[in-house]
Amino acid sequence: MADVELEIVVAFLDKDRGFAYDNKFPWPYLKGDHEFYLNLTTSRKDPSKKNAYIMGRVSWEAWIDEEKCNPHLYTVVTSTTLKSEGVPYLQKVLPDLDAAIDYVTKPPVSDQIEKVFIMGGGRNYEICIDDPRLKRIWVTRIFGDFKANVFFPKFDHKFKRVSCPTLDESMQEDNGVKYQFELWERFTN
Asked: Can you give the residue ranges of the DHFR domain (predicted)?
């Protein structure tokens, strides 16, 4: 991959950027958000390629099996305890985010990859915010009073909210929870 561009996909609470409570989303299932993130992260211009998902071990373990086996994804997990041998649908386990990014962005793996998405967890998000290769953050902003104990890092000092013609930024609602999609791009010098 010539010019690596990383993208984050995250849903977090409007009040404090909380995105997890005891290793789960703090809010009930949001069908519209689920469909949005699946469409975003599995669509490709080149059907012969896949999109890379890089996520932490806890995110991987919380992820449902139906999505783990998606043929359009190439999944890499960052962990020092999980082993990839014999784990269905998992291409590789690497000890940290830098190793995972290097792995999916260099041949021979990069020949199969169209986009690279960072999908969690908290440590990967913290590291990635400062990585100049991170170009976009796709946010689902959740409105409501939910308890969280894992938080997305501050980012608006390095990113600006931008309009996207294909993104419905209107207020949505599922299961009594209001939410809104946003796109943020890194400031350019």
From this structure: 5-186
Tell me how far apart the alpha carbons of residues 166 and 128 are, in angstroms, rounded to a whole number.
Answer: 25
List, in order, residues 6 or more apart from 99 with CB less than 8 Å away.
78
CB atoms near residue 187 (< 10 Å): 9
Q: Which residue has the tokens 């689902």?
A: 140
The Cα–Cα gap between 108 and 113 comes to: 10
Condensed to tens digits (0 to 9), the pLDDT of residues 166-179 reads: 999 999 999 999 99
129 vs 123: CA distance, rounded Å: 10
Q: Any idea what DSSP says for residue 110?
A: G
Task: Kindly report whether the global pTM for this prediction surpasses the value 0.70.
Answer: yes
> Are the C-beta atoms of 85 and 112 separated by less than 8 Å?
no
In angstroms, the CA 25 to CA 147 distance is 10
* Helix or strand holding residue 103 (H, E): helix 97-105
Please state, in angstroms and rounded to a whole number, the distance separating the CA atoms of residues 69 and 86.
14
- The amino acid present at 72, given as its one-letter code, is H
Torsion of CA 160, 139, 122, 24, to 10 degrees: 160
> What gap in Å lies between CA 172 and CA 181, rounded to an integer?
9
Nearest to 62 by CA among 95, 29, 31: 29
Give me 100's structure tokens: 């995972």
Q: Model confidence at 86, in pLDDT bands (50, 70, 90)?
A: confident
